[in-house]
Amino acid sequence: MSSQIDHLLDEPRRFPPSPEFVAQSIDDPTMYDRAAADREAFWGEQARELLTWSKPFTKVLDWSNAPFAKWFDDGELNVAYNCLDRHVEAGNGDRVAIHWEGEPGDSRSITYAELTDEVKRTANVLAGLGVGHGDRVAIYLPMIPEAVISMLAVTRLGAIHSVVFGGFSADSLRSRIDDAGAKLVITADGGWRKGRVSALKPAVDQALGDRHGEGEQATVEHVLVVKRGGNDVDWTEGRDIWWHDVVPQASAEHEAQAFPAENPLFILYTSGTTGRPKGILHTTGGYLVQSAYTHKYVFDLHPDTDVFWCTADIGWVTGHSYVTYGPLANGATQLMYEGTPDSPHPGRWWELIQKYGVTIFYTAPTAIRSFMKTGRHIPQQFDLSSIRVLGSVGEPINPEAWMWYREVIGAGTAPIVDTWWQTETGAIMVSPLPGVTATKPGSAQVPLPGISVDVADDDGNEVGNGKGGLLVITRPWPAMLRGIWGDPERFKETYWNKFQDRGYYFAGDGARLDEDGDLWLLGRVDDVMNVSGHRLSTTEIESSLVAHEATAEAAVVGANDETTGQAVVAFVIIKQSYLDQHSPEGLVSQLRAWVGEQIGPIARPRDVYIVNELPKTRSGKIMRRLLRDVAEGREVGDTTTLADTMVMSTISDQVK
Ligand code: WTA
């Protein structure tokens, strides 16, 4: 690893933006100095420029009760008004907000005026179902316009959404609904994926059913169901309501009420180092300021001519900030696509870029690597000349993929912005500015104007250029998480206690600064894996494995994978009675399927190895580092702290 990093840090290639790009760009190099001179004044300026406040704020930041921040605290605004009505009032009602394309090829273009009407109708329906200020609404939908409409309708009422990725299982949905105490679930019969309808409603029925245990009171009163897949669904009278029976009939008159800037906007669950997902809480004002700011400057947005496409699902934070909130706050036109990149043919994404003239394209390294594998002849069949900015997010992008992206998708000219951020940061934190920065393949480079990050050693000291350590955020930022839903202690412990004396936020990522002071992200330093840009917890998958009756013990590691970045590899000890009665192949496939059902298909292990023992220290801690060596086919590292030093050779033999 470290020789690979040294090699990366020697990266000599630099790609400054072309003079033509600089000439048309809105990016302004003086932003860095202005922000550094007075950070709070800078954010105050952004907040006033980018958003419409119903009541202006008088104070930018209140950090007196750190780490619980308040931004723009006495200001008031309505998020949906900022994303919709004001664009119509400004005369842009006819501008397309969303070009939506379904996987089977059906499509819809929705203007800002139409989207505003739809959200108003939906808000009226939700209000009629008793949803009001502070209530939680779970959204479990495919990538259809109703997903965005639902999010905006919820926040229009001052309520809080919790979007659950449609690929998550009934169990995952259930725990998220319960943790947030959701009153309403918005779902669909099904959505299109890989050429067929994949049902969603059964998972909701299952998540809400069977509540006989203690404390298992269902908080959900209604389920609002969008018809998309056309598949048969079970129906619970009195609880379930078809979207098409109520939304089109509802009034399109709805005046948005203003709420304080610190009113909660959403909860989004993400994997942590323990088995229980954390409900990351974001509030309205600061979050919307930074989503709009980053969407505008990181992508050099020209709202009247650009067509923006972020390929993330709304179930992830990237879909929240760069499908729903950033683009709509900025009045941009965007493309939204329901399906998978290779349905019905491997060039589907490129065909869509050609069809809609996409100018800004934002995706994940794992997607780029899988396109590299199928070959450049596929994108080369399409006209991609509209593209002028490329973005990357979710995991480190290796220089090889970076170069391929620039050359094959960006015609060798489009600047690439490698954007580092997290569910917790709410919006982009580290990234080049395409009209300013000379980019470097593989490096996310520099904090944005107004953001301050550093690389520190374990004691919080700056490591300085040329050295590695832990990524920290040294000053509060507007879109920062405000807490973990229902668990303020876990919030402090997870992010703030490590560098308590300095007040630094601990991001959980390793990083290095090169000689120019540019940042290189090195992956997670905790037990969190990154598979295809999605965060998964080793502990969560281990808990799922041991919950299977055949399993005695399990250890999970993230192993390097050429396509997905990391892959889930599990080592399990099977109970003797099961070993006697089942074939190893049968057990392995059962366990893979089990994890897929319990957590979701993205968590399904790539490999499951049945072993007799796991490597443990004398204090009983599993040494995952050694298992990772095995999973990646390397010679096993230092085993001297193991209780039984022979155990690794047994495991290596069993894996072979
Ligand atoms: C990783 C996704 C390197 C990182 C927005 C972080 C990255 C985690 C990058 C957050 C990047 C995200 N380069 N690593 N450009 N972007 N990561 O919460 O490990 O799903 O901590 O947010 O993804 O994942 P999350």
TrEMBL record:
Functional description taken from the UniProt entry: Catalyzes the conversion of acetate into acetyl-CoA (AcCoA), an essential intermediate at the junction of anabolic and catabolic pathways. AcsA undergoes a two-step reaction. In the first half reaction, AcsA combines acetate with ATP to form acetyl-adenylate (AcAMP) intermediate. In the second half reaction, it can then transfer the acetyl group from AcAMP to the sulfhydryl group of CoA, forming the product AcCoA.
PTM comment, free text: Acetylated. Deacetylation by the SIR2-homolog deacetylase activates the enzyme.
Keyword Nucleotide-binding attached: yes
List of residues that carry N6-acetyllysine: 621
Keywords from the UniProt entry: Acetylation, ATP-binding, Ligase, Magnesium, Metal-binding, Nucleotide-binding
Domain AMP-binding enzyme C-terminal intervals: 540-621
Cofactor(s) this protein requires: Mg(2+)
Catalytic activity: acetate + ATP + CoA = acetyl-CoA + AMP + diphosphate
Binding site for ATP: 394-396, 418-423, 509, 524, 535
Family under the similarity heading: Belongs to the ATP-dependent AMP-binding enzyme family.
Residues holding CoA: 193-196, 318, 532
Domain Acetyl-coenzyme A synthetase N-terminal, residue spans: 30-83
EC number: 6.2.1.1
Pfam families according to UniProt: ACAS_N, AMP-binding, AMP-binding_C
GO molecular function: ligase activity
Domain AMP-dependent synthetase/ligase, first and last residues per copy: 90-485
Protein name per the record: Acetyl-coenzyme A synthetase
UniProt xrefs under InterPro entries: Ac_CoA_lig (IPR011904), ACAS_N (IPR032387), AMP-bd_C (IPR025110), AMP-bd_C_sf (IPR045851), AMP-binding_CS (IPR020845), AMP-dep_synth/lig_dom (IPR000873), ANL_N_sf (IPR042099)
Protein residues bound to Mg(2+): 546, 548
